[in-house]
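Worked Example 4.2. Consider the chain below.
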Amino acid sequence: MNLPTTRIAAIVVAILVLALQASAQYKPLTFTEYDLPNGLHVILHEDHSAPVIATVVHYMVGSRDEDPARTGFAHFFEHLMFESTDVIERGTLDKMVNGAGGQLNAFTSNDQTVYHFVLPSNQVRLALWIEAQRMRKLHVNTIGVETQRGVVKEERKNRYDNAPYGGWIEKSQSVLFAGTPYQWSPIGSAQHIDSASIPEFKAFYDAFYQPNNAVLVVSGDFDETLVRETINAYFGGYQKGPEPRRPNVGELIPLSGEIRETINDTKAQLPALFISYRAMNQTDPDAYAADLLTTILSNGESSRLYHSLVDSQQVAVQASISMFPREFVGMVYCVGIAAPGKGLADVEKGIDSELALIMRDGISDEELIKAKNITEVGFIEGRMGVYEKALALSNAYRFDKATSAVNDEMTKYMKVTKADIQRVAKRIFGTNQRVVLTYLPVKG
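Applying the procedure from the previous section yields the following structure tokens:
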């Protein structure tokens, strides 16, 4: 790949200016943390720059904690937690938060289920009250379960079953991580959700929605004394639950070389290629070099893959690479969508050539500087809001095993060298153990 020197210089200078401007606004996060007697871990971060607060409740349960015969439970509860409790009627939770000028949402991954509110600072007690209600007083009953069965099945249809290339990530995971709890995706199986009983859902709730399996973060403009008193009043009365049984992720089974599959897709408009590799877990020291590597390869129109396959060769309309970090094992995947009239053989050859080039020759000084600056800008912009800060704090405590790690992340990125990038490229891509899926459009 040969970008004009003047273009590289202009890009680097522009990003460096943005990074310097953002750095001037960033300060390390300060926080206090403690445990309630029932095991709930609490992290408090005060930020009085705006009259806003965010709460995050991070439950240490994801799809990897599910019974292989009952997948999708963690994601199902992400939805069910917006149903009723002992004192919150169905259909009123959203109205309470929106009526108070706030926002609410949640997400599920293989490793976690996270709920959050963002509200005016004078509504901090409302957020804490709702989260305390949901923690142990959720109604796991027929009307709520049946309603959310329909919602989850419809979500699966829209995002997976009826979407172009919709099943690629499930197919890739099922091969890459066969024999481990990472072999299925959080959306789970519609059949499993359909056949599960109310007692099964209640057992899952009682196993994982306990104070000793959660992290509570409050971030923003609040009075610490008031918040501590409120947390103790709302959460302190709950008993510590039994320690959840954790699955043994175990050792990955070596693949028998490259695994390939061709899928005829009635919903696809263009041929597409998905190449997936196993990668390090999210706290591996090499994860920082791997993240910078993906930035160099596919962040923006000046990146290696876009410049080579889309601009120069014009064999693809999309060419990218991304990391999918997890607590115990990660995944890196390349996506290539062929340009009209072009075939996937040229797309795959172009991707493989760029990966081989970076393994053989490494990267330039300019590319490393640019990637670090892009990462720093993104890092700082991602720490501007109270919710983003709260999420960063909960992740540091959960995955890095130390909340203070929240302030070490950029230092680790900045220590990455060109040699690290090349070594990590070889670690990930220097193997024939990968899954290659090709999707070909066909008429339905």
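Residues 1-24 have pLDDT under 50 and may be disordered. The chain is about 45% helix and 20% strand. Compare this with Example 4.1 before moving on.
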